[in-house]
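Tokens as discussed.
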């Protein structure tokens, strides 16, 4: 039977609006692709690298800021490229310490409406509109994750790497939390709630190392790779390719 439903002005306008939105979303794919391509091309040569995270709100001179700068300097002088989120606070301290050392200081900046602006201590600086593309860059080339005190963004990056390692979507690397008193409550919740509830296994807690000293962070990373080297195995390369 022939459909005699009239095409109203309202339905036509709705169709045109939907078409415009779809077209805009389709073209956005190329913007996303460009972020991945630039990231892959510029970061491929930085390994071995360590990604370091922490609060954007930590002021200069704060003990966390000083610790981040010390850790980054040690890693940089030891031959690592050091990667931060490129912003202020602990991220600035990381890039500052890395730039003062021998290795490259890398900033993966994110464009935010009200908050982040890039710091001045980046040898390699990339800018992302999309958090998910930026997250891939933090993980893909990292030989270790070092996480200092921070807020939602820092916790997001921590949970990201933990999930990827736990599920086998990323190779296992050292995940180091710095300053035990800050992380004590979170780790207790993991141990006393998540493990008994069966939402994680007790073995998952072994993915995390908690340290308080900059030199200990460097030593822990070298100890992890002492008998295998920093280059990923063939299997690990395939895993990272499918991130």
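Sequence:
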């Amino acid at each position: 039977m022939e459909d005699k439903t009239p095409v109203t002005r309202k339905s036509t306008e709705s169709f045109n609006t939907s078409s415009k939105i779809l077209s805009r979303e389709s073209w956005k794919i190329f913007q996303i692709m460009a972020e991945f391509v630039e990231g892959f091309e510029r970061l491929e040569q930085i390994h071995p690298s360590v990604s370091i995270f922490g609060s954007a709100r930590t002021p200069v001179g704060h003990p966390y800021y000083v610790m981040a700068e010390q850790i980054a300097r040690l890693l940089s002088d030891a031959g690592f490229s050091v990667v931060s989120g490129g912003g202020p606070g602990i991220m600035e301290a990381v890039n500052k310490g890395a730039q003062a050392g021998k290795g490259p200081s890398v900033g993966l900046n994110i464009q935010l409406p009200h908050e982040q602006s890039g710091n001045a201590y980046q040898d390699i600086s990339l800018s992302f509109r999309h958090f998910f593309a930026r997250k891939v860059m933090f993980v893909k080339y990292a030989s270790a994750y070092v996480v200092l005190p921070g807020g939602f963004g820092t916790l997001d990056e921590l949970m990201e790497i933990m999930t990827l390692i736990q599920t086998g979507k990323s190779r296992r690397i050292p995940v180091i939390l710095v300053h035990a008193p800050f992380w004590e409550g979170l780790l207790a919740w993991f141990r006393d709630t998540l493990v008994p509830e069966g939402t994680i296994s007790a073995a998952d807690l072994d993915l995390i190392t908690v340290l308080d000293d900059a030199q200990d962070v460097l030593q822990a990373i070298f100890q992890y790779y002492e008998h295998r080297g920093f280059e990923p195995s063939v299997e690990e390369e395939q895993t990272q390719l499918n991130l």
